[in-house]
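Archive entry. Fields below.
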Amino acid sequence: MPSLVQAHDRVKAVEWTPSYVEHQPRYPTRYKLPRKTKDPFRTLVREYLTMEQEKDDRQYGGFEDVLSRTARSSDADLGWLEGLKLALPIVVYAEYGAEKCQSMLVDTVDNAELRAGYLAQAMDERRHLNQQMYLLRHFAKNAADPAGFDRGMKVRGDNIFARAGRVCFDNFYVNDPIECAISLQVIGETAYTNPLFVALTQVAALNGDHATPGVFLSIQSDEARHMANGYATLATVLSEPDNLPMLQQDFDRSFWKQHVFLDPLISVLFDYFGRGKMNKCYYKLWEEWVADDWVGNYIGTLEPFGLQVPKYFGEAAERLKWSGHTAAMVAAASWPLHYWRWPSMTPQHMEWMENQYPGWYDIYGQFWEAFSCLEDPSMEMIPLQGLSQRPFFCRTCALPCVFPKIDESTERVRQYNGRNHAFCSNACEEIFCQQPERYEATILWDELWDGTSLEEFVVTRDLLRADGKTLIAQPHTRDDSHMWTVDDVARLNFEITDPIKDVKDAPELVKQPDGTLVLKTDELVGTGA
Amino acid sequence: MYDIRIEPFGETFDCGEDETILAAALRNRRYLRYGCKHGGCGTCKVQVLDGDVEITASNFALPPAERDAGTILVCQSYPVEDCILDVGAMNLDEDEFRRGDATTSRAMTVESVTALTHDIRRLVLRHTPDGSLPFVAGQFVNVTVPGTTAQRSYSMANGSADIDRIELICKVLPGGLFSGWLTDTAAPGDPVEVSGPFGALAVRLSHRDLVMVAGGSGLAPLLSMLIDLSRKGCERPISLFFGARTAADLYVTEEIAALAADLPLTFVPVVQLPDANWAGATGLVTDALAAARESWSSSDAYLCGPPGMIDAARDLLVARGVRPQNVYFDAFVSTGETAGV
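PREDICTED_STRUCTURE:
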């Protein structure tokens, strides 16, 4: 019987690639990759799966034996669970993208050591997808208000924010497989899974949710190895100096595309649905975990090989001070369009916000005061109606162009190929200009539903509860006597519109010989429209 | 003998009652990061998970809050029972830990000794065929005082790209063992034994600006960092505050001015006792720091100098928005001082 090390060496020696046929990757990469490096997992898939099986047994056993029978999930903070309605269907898509990414890498990367790691990670991603689906099922059966937990997976493609989540996580399996690995393993899993799966676990526990921590911590126990995969991939790529310029550009772009969606999402979950129960806000954790640990430690060790801080990192740090609050405000203002409820803010929660983000009340406090006045359907108004102008949607990140603050936007509109395109930031415009064909065809939420009444949207998108009348979404989590119905929505006479089609004479982007775009005029890329 | 278990590697070694944990680790052919070995540099910080240790007096590099939270310096800690320690903060990988102490000791020769001020010398040491000593800007070496077994710690003041030599900035202390050799004996060509490099002070990759504060010979590691940042084409704004007692105590100001041509560097020399010809900032270096900006919240801070200056600068910068964990420092503590600190 060979030792584990001997067995492992033998498996690696198989090399996977048959000598009798030339392997043509289905997903070719531009990168040069040496065939020999270091296996980041250092374990046999056989042994690995046994370990993961045990983790699954414990987790599902815990759900069935304890949580379901004791009905603990019905006691969790109602506001917090609404945040999970929003988030879980989005995160499930990320897991799906992550699994596809590993399949691409196994096919493309001709390096037995790395492939062993990718194969094990593919198994993990499928495991995570199942775990999160099970968590959705658990809440659909046990939450005090299950409406939405049962519908999120179905309606997420029609939701403003979940749709942008898809655009974000498409980056895990669209484009060069190595760029996908950077998006997923180096940025998504190394920079952002701690905030997502560790910090939110604490928030869940503080809100009386005993189901989510078990799932999230079980998932996070795999992420350390995925980070090792990312590090091994990066180190392999950096061992070929020719890769560096391409790598830095892919790294810059991948960071921004993850930041632009994930930071507002986690910030909203943490600071708003978390109900102000943590002693630190998301921005402070981000400085610690993303700026200090990820950039300072993880990327810092690769700096001697030439890797630099992502180009847009400083802009992201600046934007992050307010982007979560702005996202929360816009999401709350458009509440009937969603598949979750918005809890109104308590005075204690507002005080927490002001302490954590000095100056918060002056910018956002009035909105939340007004929001609570419009909770009851008898008010016959939703906050969206109070906006003087509907925001455009960004062609690159698919989010409304409202960042960093509603009164301090970096939005700009351009014309290209006979259409108007809005961008929320310098970075999103630059990324579009680098690969216009990658983003040009993206159908944005407001283009999809232009001219649709709110009532029609709610009915056709199946955003109603079992009685066929009451909305899943509500601007509060109070009892059922103040629930908005489709009749209340019909009285609003509100229509979804796509305001960008009316913009005339936006500056034009033109193609250069290398396929990238520049402004036709002498204006620099990055100036406002 | 006590058992010392090291996490996250799950390995246990024995340690005598009169043996520091660091000495026991090295004796057992296991490596823990260390530097000055006299409690002055903080390189060997670890977290006690279980058990208790006796700490000797020299513990300067451990702020009280960290001490209260169970952090110790293994070079100054003697076990009084079995202990479990977490060395995660050392960023050691398992191979490094199990390989034992790979710190190199090199024979070097004196190239030059130059007086920069009345009590500051620049000592240039050249590598011999024995091999070079690669370092990261901010690190230091231990120099054995020729003719003795005593060692002194000095930070490199040159850029890490210089593979043929190291440059040290040494303060001459009256009656000091090394100072005596430096001023009276050292001559070009003299052999010197150097070990290292040690220390974890280094410019951390970040999107934030840099504020650097130096006092006395503490300019050395910051100068090394500036040279390296210049070579890398750093675009992060840098503010360097250099405090001295009199204008005559300032040194290498032309070299810093030359670096400012290639770097987004603002250089503020500060003199405590100005003469009539001095037109720059006056007072303590922290006065100039306070006058320069109301908020330093978008900066990482790098400090090197006497303990009093570091304490004052750290408090001021934290009060003005620098996150405590983004204040990186290296205290200049003479060997004679540490016993009482």
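CURATOR_NOTE: Chain A touches chain B at residues 287-288, 291-292, 295-297, 299-300, 303, 308-309, 313-314, 317 (CB under 8 Å).
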